[in-house]
Amino acid sequence: MDTLFVMDLVLILEILIVAALIHLLPRLTRREIFFAVTVSSGYRETQEARKTMLRFRAAVRIHALIAISLVVASRIEHVNWLAISAIYWLVGGCFVAFLRARRETLPHAQSPASQREAAVAPRPSSIIGSWWLQASPFAILAVTAAYLHFNWDQIPVKFPVHWGLNGKPNGWSTRSFSGVYGPLLLGACICLGLALLSYGIQHWTRQVRASGVGAAHESFFRSSQRGIILITELFLAATFAWTGWLPLQPQVDSQMPGMIPIFFGTVLFLLSVVGWLIYTGQGGENLSRAGSGPSPASPELPTGDRTPDQCWKAGVIYINRNDPAVLVEKRFGVGYTLNFGHPISWVLLGSLVLIPALLAFFLNRGR
Fold first, then answer.
1. What is the DSSP letter of 38?
2. CA dihedral in degrees (263, 265, 270, 276; nearest 10)?
3. Which of the residues 168, 182, 292, 321 has the least number of beta carbons within 10 Å of its own beta carbon?
4. Residue 124 pLDDT > 90
């Protein structure tokens, strides 16, 4: 089985995973949020909401089939850009379907609950926040860097670092600081940004419920999101460490060295994350529906997510200068997004995107 065929299969599997998640997203949000619009708790069961849901899901299935067709066509016609465009088609097409569903829902919008709650005690921190767990991804990268340092003379003067879709090497690096340690530095930079995001989830998010079952499930959800970030850091650290070991591995110029386990490891990781997101739902919503997780007794009131609809641009970008929260719950998806009206959000964005991009640019120049 050639490498290109395996990559096509992996890409099709990733398309199916992404499409399945998007298909489920409307049911994973808080009950009073429907296609990024605040609605009454019973609106989902109305005829209008069901029709909107059916049209959205039909569009998702159609775009998934088109994306898979693009991958198959790229294999038949030997046009690589068709396979690359498949994911873009799926995400873009589904986003258009989301905007249409949101437009249909807007006439039924209701104002968020005006009642507010405040917690007087600090938020409890789980084992996920322990320093030794947070340091573990960086330890993996540091050990790899030390091993490379002590085996510097065994590193070839020139070695492949990138392979094309045909499995042939098309990018090379040299035995230099940037060529050998560059992947490890880039991995450390990305892990540092993710660690900052994890800290923000614990300290810079709004607590929608301050007491009762909802608060307990929300705390569990917050910890699980930090756990996903930590596992992502460990996965990325292991991947970048494996990349750092490439110069010391026997080079076979005719094919990619050991990439198939990385591909299937990535798919398994994505499936695990998607399964956990379905289990919790946004803000622990599915825990409340199933009656699982911690459940101290307390009356629950419908709240939505306590953010004003008018501050959500296209339902996915939140801008509110009057909101002290740096991170807020996504309205379509599971997890958190930035409040772009808060200055700290731009610091987070820079650490997650700009700094790794600039580091990669300068490292490539130094090769």
1. E
2. 170
3. 321
4. no
Closest to 305 in 3D by CA, of 14, 31, 62: 31
Tell me the C-alpha to C-alpha distance, in Å, between residue 246 and each of 1, 151, 167, 176, 185: 23, 13, 15, 14, 15
E strands along 217-316, which residues? 312-313
Mean of pLDDT values over 197-206: 88
With b for 16 or more beta-carbon neighbours within 10 A and e for fewer, the 265-280 pattern comes to eeeeeeeebbeebbeb
21: in domain: yes
**Residue 171: beta bridge partners?**
162
Between 366 and 316, residue with greater pLDDT = 316
The whole model's pTM is what?
A: 0.79
The whole-number average pLDDT for the span 349-361 is 77
CA distance 351 to 343: 13
Given 299, 328, 354, the domain boundary residue is: 299
The pLDDT score that the predictor gives to residue 277 is 85
Average pLDDT of the residues of the chain: 82
Beta strands in the chain (DSSP E): 33-34, 37-38, 158-163, 169-174, 312-313, 317-318, 327-329, 336-338
Q: Give the residue carrying structure tokens 């009206």.
A: 341
SS3 at position 145: helix
Total domains in the fold of the chain: 2
Verify that 104 and 135 share a domain, yes or no. no
Among 299, 329, 355, the domain-final residue is: 299
Residue 214 three-state SS:
helix
pLDDT in tens, 331-351: 998 899 999 999 999 888 887
* Residues 72 and 151 both lie in one domain: no
Q: Is the dihedral of CA 29, 34, 36, 41 positive or negative?
A: negative
Is the CA virtual torsion 302, 304, 307, 313 positive or negative? negative
Where residue 317 falls (left for φ over 0; alpha for ψ -120 to 50; beta otherwise) is beta
The Cα-based distances of 92 to 59, 85, 99, 103, 138 in angstroms read: 11, 10, 11, 17, 35
Instruction: Please report whether residue 144 resides in a domain.
Output: yes
- Give residue 243's domain range: 127-299
pLDDT digits (tens, 9 = 90+) for 71-100: 888 878 777 778 889 989 999 999 999 999
Q: Is the dihedral of CA 324, 325, 326, 331 positive or negative?
A: negative
